[in-house]
Specification:
Length: 77
């Protein structure tokens, strides 16, 4: 998992997106990636932001939920 967390900071958006998607597969076990995924909610690439949100939903911790609530609020028209 540390390699996937590191890949969330890659220059290539495709690499960041794939890492976030892979972390989502770990569900709650991806808790160590929570902060890195929260940072990706501000990624310049919309796909990475969406996949990071998906991964955070799968983690389901209070910290992840709080970040998702703020993310959704910021996206609201």
């Amino acid at each position: 998992m540390p390699k996937l967390i590191k890949q969330l900071s890659a220059k290539d958006s495709s690499t960041r997106n794939k890492a976030a998607y892979a972390l989502a597969g770990y569900g709650a076990d991806a808790k160590p990636a929570t902060r890195a995924l929260i940072a990706r909610l501000k990624d310049p690439n919309m796909g990475v932001r969406s996949t990071a949100a998906y991964a955070l939903r799968s983690i389901g911790t209070p910290e992840a939920t709080k970040a998702l609530d703020a993310y959704e609020k910021d996206r609201a028209p």
